[in-house]
Design a protein that fits this description.
The complex is a heterotrimer.
Chain A (H helix, E strand, L loop, with lengths): L5 E6 L7 H15 L3 E6 L23 H4 L4 H14 L3 E7 H7 L8 E4 L1 H10 L2 E5 L4
Parallel strand pairs in A: 1-2, 1-5, 2-3, 3-4
Chain B lengths: L3 E6 L6 H4 L3 H11 L3 E6 L17 E2 L2 E2 L6 H10 L3 E5 H6 L12 E3 L4 H6 L3 E4 L1
Parallel strand pairs in B: 1-2, 1-7, 2-5, 5-6
Antiparallel strand pairs in B: 3-4
Chain C lengths: L2 E6 L8 H14 L3 E6 L13 H9 L3 E5 H6 L11 E4 L2 H8 L3 E4 L1
Parallel strand pairs in C: 1-2, 1-5, 2-3, 3-4
The chains are: A alpha/beta, B alpha/beta, C alpha/beta.
C-alpha cells in the first residue's frame, strides 16, 4: 500500500454551476479512500459546498417526486467523503474561508467542516507533501 | 524555508466589482503577509490588470453607490511593494494590443516560451 | 529534471488559451522534464477526431504522455477504442498518483 501523504486541495467554484466541482470532489474522494491526510480550503463560492441548509427537491419534468429524484447535494458528498476518509484511517480538515462565508451568508456548515482563513491554506501547503489549486474561470 | 509558490492568474474581471478586488491577488497578498513566498504571473486577459488608469467607479444599485470601486492596478502596485514579484506574459500583452508603456511600473515581462523556466524555479504552481 | 502533470479541463474550441497550455507541456518536455497532460471534462473533446486533434498529436510528438479521463470520455460518448494513438484513457486516480509522487500538478 502506498505511503500515506498529506495533500492540500484549494477550490473556488460553488456547487451546481460547473463541471469543475464534480472533478474536484472525485479527486478528494479518491484521496480520502486512500487514507491520506487531506486539507481542503474552500475559497469564494466553494464555501457553499458544506452549507447545511441545501435541500432536495422533486422534479416534475422527469416525473419524479422528492424521493425518486434523490437529487445530489454537495453537502452530502462532503459528508460522505469525510466518512470515507475516517473509514480509511485518514482525516480531512475541510476549511471554509471565513470572509467568503460571511458575504455569502452560508455560515451554517455541516459537522466536520470549519471556518478558517488564507493563513490556514498557507500553513497547509507548507506542511503538505503536495497541493493542487483548482481555480475558477470567468 | 517557505515553499516558493508561483500563482497564475488568467481570467480577469470575473467578480472584481462584487469583491472590490481580484480574489487571486487578494489571497496572495494575505498569504504573503502570513509569511508565504509568492510570485505572480499574469497571463491571458489578466495581463490587462496592469493597465494604468482602470476605473471601476460609478455603479449604483437602487440609487445606492458602491463606495470602494475596484482598482486591480493599484492592488498590484501594492503587492509589489510588499515584495511579491509580478510577471506578465509579453506575447499575451502584444496579442491584445498592450505595450509596457500602458502598464503600471514594476511588472516584469516573460515570453510565453519563458514560462516553463518560472515553473522550474518554484516549488508549487497554483492556478487560480 | 522535474516531473509535471498538467490537467486540461477546457475545450480548445472554447478557449484559445488551450493551445498555449499544449505548447507549455511541449516546452517542458523538450527541456527534459517528464510531463503528462491529462484531459478532463470538455478538455477530452479533441480526443474525438476533429480539427483540433492535430494540435494534441504535436504535443505527443514532443514527448508528452497524454491521458484522457475515462469518465469524461464516456460522459461525452467518445469511444475509448477510437482514441488517437497519442491519447490513452486513464482513471482519474492518476492525479492522486502523481500528487503522491511529488509531481508539480497544475490545473487548467
Amino acid at each position: 500500500m502506498a505511503t500515506k501523504k498529506k495533500l492540500t486541495f484549494a477550490l473556488m467554484d460553488p456547487p451546481f454551476e460547473n463541471a469543475r466541482t464534480v472533478t474536484t470532489m472525485r479527486l478528494i474522494d479518491i484521496a480520502a479512500r486512500r487514507g491520506h491526510e487531506i486539507i481542503v480550503f474552500a475559497y469564494e463560492g466553494a464555501v457553499g459546498h458544506a452549507f447545511a441548509k441545501q435541500a432536495k427537491h422533486a422534479n416534475a419534468a422527469h416525473g419524479h417526486d422528492l424521493a425518486q429524484e434523490d437529487h445530489p447535494l454537495a453537502r452530502e458528498w462532503v459528508a460522505n467523503i469525510l466518512a470515507a476518509s475516517q473509514a480509511a484511517g485518514g482525516k480531512i480538515d475541510w476549511i471554509n474561508c471565513g470572509l467568503c462565508v460571511d458575504e455569502r451568508g452560508v455560515g451554517e456548515f455541516i459537522h466536520g467542516t470549519r471556518r478558517g482563513s488564507p493563513a490556514d491554506l498557507l500553513k497547509a501547503a507548507e506542511g503538505s507533501d503536495n497541493s493542487l489549486v483548482i481555480g475558477t474561470r470567468g | 524555508m517557505a515553499k516558493k509558490i508561483l500563482t497564475l492568474i488568467d481570467s480577469a474581471y470575473r467578480c472584481t466589482v462584487e469583491e472590490q478586488d481580484e480574489p487571486a491577488v487578494w489571497i496572495t497578498e494575505v498569504m504573503k503577509g502570513a509569511g508565504g513566498d509568492f510570485t505572480l504571473l499574469l497571463q491571458g486577459n489578466a495581463v490587462g490588470y496592469l493597465v494604468r488608469g482602470q476605473d471601476g467607479s460609478g455603479l449604483s444599485f437602487g440609487g445606492v453607490k458602491l463606495t470602494h470601486p475596484v482598482s486591480v492596478d493599484r492592488d498590484l502596485t501594492q503587492i509589489m511593494g510588499k515584495g511579491v514579484e509580478v510577471y506578465f506574459v509579453q506575447d499575451d500583452a502584444e496579442e491584445r494590443g498592450l505595450e509596457s508603456s500602458d502598464f503600471i511600473a514594476g511588472a516584469k515581462p516573460v515570453s510565453r516560451a519563458g514560462v516553463a523556466k518560472l515553473f522550474a524555479s518554484h516549488d508549487l504552481v497554483w492556478h487560480w | 529534471m522535474a516531473k509535471y502533470l498538467l490537467i486540461e479541463s477546457r475545450d480548445p474550441f472554447e478557449s484559445n488559451d488551450v493551445e498555449n497550455h499544449y505548447a507549455l507541456a511541449s516546452s517542458l518536455a523538450k527541456d527534459g522534464d517528464t510531463v503528462t497532460l491529462l484531459l478532463v471534462q470538455n478538455g477530452v473533446l479533441p480526443a474525438r477526431k476533429s480539427a483540433r486533434t492535430e494540435a494534441l498529436e504535436k504535443v505527443a510528438k514532443a514527448g508528452v504522455e497524454i491521458l484522457a479521463d475515462e469518465f469524461s470520455l464516456r460522459e461525452r460518448g467518445i469511444d475509448a477504442a477510437r482514441l488517437p494513438a497519442s491519447v490513452k484513457k486513464a482513471a482519474l486516480d492518476v492525479v492522486i498518483d502523481h500528487l503522491e509522487d511529488g509531481r508539480k500538478v497544475v490545473w487548467y
